[in-house]
Amino acid sequence: MYQYDNIDQTIVNERVTQFRDQTSRYLSGKLTDDEFRPLRLQNGLYIQRHAPMLRIAIPYGLLSSKQLRKLADIADRFDRGYGHFSTRQNLQLNWPKLEETPDILEELSKVEMHAIQTSGNCIRNITTDQFAGVAPDEIIDPRAIAEILRQWSTFHPEFSLLPRKFKIAVSGSKQDRAIVQAHDIGLEFYYDKEQKMAIRVWVGGGLGRTPILGSVIREHLEWEHVLTYCEAIIRVYNLHGRRDNIYKARIKILVKALGVEEFKKQVEAEWLHLKNSPNTINEGELKRVTKFFTQMPYEKLKDQDDAFDEVNKNNKAFASWVKRSVHPHKQKGYRSVTLSLKPHGLAPGDATSDQMRIVAELADQYSFGELRVSHEQNLILADVKLKDIFKLWEKAKAHQLATPNIGLLTDIICCPGGDFCSLANAKSIPIATSIQEAFDDLDYLHDIGELELNISGCMNACGHHHIGHIGVLGVDKDGSEWYQVTIGGKQGNDASLGTVIGPSFAAEEMPGVVKKLIDVYIKQRNPEERFIDTVRRLGVNPFKEHVYA
């Protein structure tokens, strides 16, 4: 866990004081809506459909049990007893009162948390792999670099008013679990031929209205230059990104308009002024920041446990959960465990305050008091001893945190949609729950196998529908809510964008549409072939023909 120093704490405390004064002046009429808007946005406060929405930052998805308990207390005291974990590894409160938001920020500051730059046209929450630091395929633990990026980008005076929001993801593993290709900047660490750590830099990715996967702008960047190179990229974007049209303002549009080679040429020219400047990182600085992260007191254990093997062999329900929710760990005798926030019939990504307290307790008992938030909207206990997994499962199951559906069709990624968001064209949560109800047979779900279903309530794509194996987008037609379906999207190293299969559907048709897509897959798949691979092999037409027959 990253521990604040005096500078971090002072910055957060002062921001609370500033925002309390700004809110007071707004409520007393001394600030207009237009004057208050950028101030509240840079503190994560939106005006939504029913109430303000406060987006709380969880840098690189890392939380302590103490912080989670604080979030639970805030949800009870200032909201309606629950929070929504988003695809940006943040937590959103849907019902806070405007006049109480400074109090919420003050409570957050007591546990080294804030809502700074979770909104506005600035560099947003830095994200990374939910298995950072424990994944067996990890090249480097990316969290120290992510933290350096956080410190550099927070209140960066040059990048506080960018043309649009700006998102950076860092991947330190062979398998990309941070979806670097779907970010404005994606940083992919690897070892070069000389076994030196280097970064492949992706730029110009993003979903939303014009979905584009990023392009490699620099194949080999010496890691020491990560800040100066990012600075060069964002400077070029800040100078030339469009400000006259919100829909054309993201860096992906600029890269597309200029062409990757011309954009790269301009970045490299800008970098000449920045390379080897004081923002160059050295080993000493990396080690200094790394020391602020808690080092886990791992025990020396065998990578096998007889009691675990026995119950895994004889308890079918436990074995099904283990298969989907328990992941390899670089430390012998330990595993990472995903706690599902996708029980059937409830809004994906939501957690009640009681569940938050239970997860905090589980983290204390079994995972050194830490947990992670995934962009798939689940929670991860990263450091669980193999021998403790059965006890953990029993407790998680009792609180609807152990649905064995991780990576399956009902592990739906879903934005809050029209139930809460003022930007949404259609509701998304009811679509997710209706699909979950239609696929409530766990044996059938496991037979279908790995399948990612993503739902967004509008073109802003907070549900990442473009990169879902099946993507659902809510659209508005003459005041009615309809749903457009894509297939073939995928996150990861071989990322792809889904293809629209045809005209949109009414809400009540959606479970049937998904069933028909699955029917084609079940009938046409080769042994052990995943849904995404069948779609890539067959193309869209067989699915389209069956759905619209």
From TrEMBL:
One of its GO terms (molecular function) is heme binding. Residues 119-271, 412-547 form the Nitrite/sulphite reductase 4Fe-4S domain. Residues 53-110, 327-398 form the Nitrite/Sulfite reductase ferredoxin-like domain. Keywords: 4Fe-4S, Heme, Iron, Iron-sulfur, Metal-binding, Oxidoreductase. Belongs to the nitrite and sulfite reductase 4Fe-4S domain family. This is Nitrite/sulfite reductase.
